[in-house]
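Notebook p. 47: complex prediction with zinc ion.
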Amino acid sequence: MMDTMINSVILNNSLIEKYPWLYPHYQWTGEKVEDYDYTWTELDALSKGWREAFGELLCEEIQEELEKFDYADKYSIAQIKSKFGEMRWYDNGCPDGCRVHEIIENYAAISGYICEICGELDVPSTDGWIMPVCKRCIKKMSFKDPEAYWEQISKEQFPHTLPLTRRYRRWSSDKDEWEEFVVDLTSTVQKIRKRYVERHGD
Ligand SMILES: [Zn+2]
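Predicted complex, C-alpha cells below:
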C-alpha cells in the first residue's frame, strides 16, 4: 500500500514537471490546491482505460502546442469527464490560433471506440447508458447475457474501429451557410496503436 502511494507520488511529480497544468486547482475558484501532496493530479479525472490508451499522448500534444504560445504555465483544466461515451475535456481557454481545442476534439472522437475501463481498442458502446467497452469488461458488468449483448452491439455498431476522420460543421457568417470540415485522424490513431503494442506486445 505504502509502495503504491510512493510510486504514484513519484509518477505525479514527473507528470507535473512535464505538464505543469496538471497541478490540481479548486474547480470553483481556480486557485491552486494548498498543501498539495502529489497523491493525485487533474489527469486522474480521465477514465482509466482512456488514460492508459492515450492519456500521456494527449498531454504531450497539448504541452507541445502550449509551448508555441508560451502558455503552458497559464493553461488550466476546468473539467475532464465522460459524456455520451466520449471524453469531454474543458479548459479555461487558450490564446488565439492555438490548436489545443482541435487536439482535444480529435482524441474525443477516437475515445468513443476505446474501452473506458481497460483501454482496449476498436470497441462498440453499450446503449442506454453509453459507454465504450470491450468484450472482457462487459462480462464483469451486470448484463443478463453478456455474450449475446456483446454480439448484438458489435453487429449493430459495425465497424467500431478507431475512426480515421472527424467531421464537423461550422456556421460561416461570411457565406451565410454551414460549412463542413473533415479532419484526418490517421497520425493520432497510429500513435495510439503504437502505444497499445508497447503496452501489450503484438
Ligand atoms: Zn475493457
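Notes: Residues 48-68 form the longest helix (21 residues). Residues 115, 117-118, 120, 133-134, 136-137 surround zinc ion (CB under 6 Å).
Next step: compare against the earlier run before touching the bench.
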